[in-house]
Specification:
It contains eight helices and ten strands. The protein has 299 residues and is of the alpha/beta class. The strands form two sheets. The protein has an eight-stranded parallel beta sheet, with helices on both faces. Helix 7 links the parallel strand 9 and strand 10. The longest helix has 20 residues.
């Protein structure tokens, strides 16, 4: 009688113990399936599981670093259940969950879900890491003071992040007049479409605006729809894969990446390659955060 065959666990990377155990893992993946304030296409609540499922089919050997990076230990939490009464409560729920994990010396990687969740994670990180700044990679400025009656809409995520720490934006190519004026008046570093294409000089300018400790918040619509159509509000003219990685590597070479989130995958809006791209990006950012010589974690 042949041995039974089992599918890999539905956790990030399809990892088995001990590489997926909580105690030994440096990284904890926090899936947050939530899309209560989306204003165009819904479906980001399905994003975290799609990324996790795709990640189980990745090769775990990284060519750039020359090794399998999952040996750092990557634990996948159960889904953080949504609060449906008020977006404010959901942001607080994210804050409490992330802070609890940070207090256990974990690097938290949040998989969204819509971008309204990011201020909750940033708030927790700002309490644990002095001199924190955020690199906000997004097609949209997300700088509205409020949207459709809520200060915690997905269209306000960057504005709420500013409540906790400085922010630098890159990849923005769509914003309102009020947002444009606010960015200029507040002196926010926001690298809009006319600053592209990505060059070493631009990367140097972006990274020089960041502090020692950096949290990276990625709305997947920062990528061009030709490679990332599975988002709620796609915008033409976005970054390509190697351009995005060049920016992220530039940050890792100069700063300590303490945490990050990957947000706004809406799987039904695009092919499965989008979820796979999001999974590869998540794994790559883990590597940049933990393998950089200045990260304090590299082995």
């Amino acid at each position: 009688m042949s041995e039974p065959i089992y599918y890999p666990p539905r956790v990030f990377g399809g990892l088995y113990a001990p590489d997926s155990g909580f105690e030994r893992s440096k990284v904890v993946v926090l899936p947050v399936p939530y899309d209560s304030t989306t204003s165009y296409k819904t479906g980001t609540r399905e994003g975290p599981q799609a990324i996790i499922d795709a990640s189980g089919n990745m090769e775990l050997f990284d060519i750039e670093f020359g090794r399998e990076l999952h040996t750092i230990g990557i634990h996948t939490m159960s889904d953080l259940q949504p609060a449906v009464n008020d977006p404010t409560d959901m942001v607080y729920r994210v804050y409490a969950a992330v802070l609890s994990l940070l207090n256990q010396d974990k690097m938290v990687v949040m998989l969204g879900g819509e971008h309204s969740l990011s201020p909750g994670a940033v708030r927790a990180y700002s309490e644990k890491f002095p001199n924190l700044s955020v690199l906000h990679l997004d097609a949209h400025a997300d700088m509205r003071a409020e949207y459709l009656g809520s200060r915690y809409s997905h269209a306000c995520s960057a504005r709420r992040i500013l409540d906790y720490c400085p922010l630098v934006q890159a990849g923005v190519r769509s914003l309102s007049l009020d947002e444009y004026n606010f960015i200029k008046e507040a002196g926010i570093k926001s690298y809009l479409l006319d600053e592209w294409p990505v060059t070493p000089a631009l990367i140097e300018e972006i990274t020089s605006s960041l502090s020692d400790n950096v949290y990276i918040s990625v709305d997947l619509d920062v990528l061009d729809p030709s490679i990332m159509s599975a988002v709620g509000t796609p915008e033409p003219g976005g970054l390509l894969w190697k351009e995005l990685l060049a920016i992220l590597k530039g940050v890792a070479d100069r700063h300590r990446i303490v945490g990050f989130d990957i947000m706004e995958l809406s799987p039904r809006e695009g092919p499965t390659s989008c979820a796979f791209t999001a999974a590869k990006l998540t794994y790559k950012l883990m590597a940049y955060a933990l393998e950089s010589p200045i990260s304090g974690h590299s082995e």
